[in-house]
From TrEMBL:
GO BP annotations listed: negative regulation of DNA-templated transcription
InterPro entries: GAF-like_dom_sf (IPR029016), HTH_MetabolicPath_Reg (IPR050707), Tscrpt_reg_IclR_C (IPR014757), Tscrpt_reg_IclR_N (IPR005471), WH-like_DNA-bd_sf (IPR036388), WH_DNA-bd_sf (IPR036390)
Organism: Actinomadura geliboluensis
Keyword Transcription regulation recorded: yes
Protein name: IclR family transcriptional regulator
Length: 269
């Protein structure tokens, strides 16, 4: 059907349509305030505010220093184009749930798309206040990102972050800190992020590899506030995470939808 033949749906979902309209407005105009959104949609300011905050929650919008809403990371994220991600998510799901029960924290599964990570799935525990599914985050500031980046060669990392014309907003000093963190992952097999992506979040990550050893994704455990992850139970938590990732890798080995050797890097580098 061509764009000239588009017809309104017979049973529209008004809230969804309004949210999509706000995305279009910010995409085309660059920013919007609550009063402007309410006027455009013909709704009360309180309703517009709830819609905008939902889009912030899902990373489509962020608020700038003037409290206006501007495009968030999900707004510019194109399709990942990774055919095997659905199979990875399906394989990982039961192991994520079991891991969350064992350690008492939420678990997440992420893949890397260039210098960003995308959260494919989350298994939350009672009391969890955030669902990370669908989030688009800078790889160098997340436990999942550092876990996957640690499997790349140093020259590849330099090209990704420091090559002329690359727009990752990473300074040389921040890249040096990233390399220190990657050195830790290469020595220990696990990564950590404490307040780097969000001030109150602590996360531990372990990479998930393909048959060839290429990075497919990473599993993380996250917690808010003062972290129990880095306390006396850390060794136990890391051991459970390694066991879960090993089971996922073993099941992927026999999955006909699993990527061929090298496909993971080719799709996400």
């Amino acid at each position: 059907m061509s764009s000239s033949e588009r017809m309104p749906p017979a049973y529209p979902t008004n809230a969804l349509d309004r949210g999509l309209r706000l995305i279009q407005l910010v995409r085309d105009e660059g920013r919007i305030r609550v009063t402007d959104a309410a006027e455009e949609l013909g709704v009360a300011a309180s309703s517009a505010h709830r819609l905008l905050q939902t889009l912030v929650y899902r990373d489509y919008l962020v608020q700038d220093e003037t409290h206006a809403y501007v495009p968030g990371p999900a707004m510019s994220a194109g399709a990942a184009g990774i055919a095997w991600s659905r199979g990875l998510r399906r394989t990982a799901a039961p192991h994520m749930s079991r891991l969350g029960e064992l350690v008492g924290n939420s678990t997440n599964l992420a893949i890397r798309v260039r210098s960003e990570v995308r959260v494919l799935a989350s298994a939350t525990v009672p009391g969890s206040t955030y669902d990370w599914r669908g989030s688009v985050l800078p790889a160098h500031r997340t436990a999942s990102g550092k876990a996957m980046l640690s499997l790349l060669a140093d020259p590849d990392l330099e090209r990704m972050y420091l090559a002329e014309g690359v727009n990752t907003a990473v300074s040389v000093a921040e890249f040096d800190r990233l390399m220190d963190g990657i050195g830790w992952v290469r020595r220990t097999g696990w990564s950590i992020s404490k307040g780097e992506c969000e001030r109150t979040i602590t996360a531990i990550g372990i990479p998930i590899r393909s048959r060839s050893g290429a990075p497919l994704g990473a599993m993380t455990i996250t917690t808010h506030g003062p972290s129990s992850l880095v306390g006396p139970g850390l060794d136990r938590t890391v051991r459970y995470m390694r066991q879960a990732c090993a089971r996922i890798e073993a099941e992927i080995e026999g999955d006909p939808e699993a990527p061929a050797p090298g496909e993971a890097i080719a799709s996400t580098a």
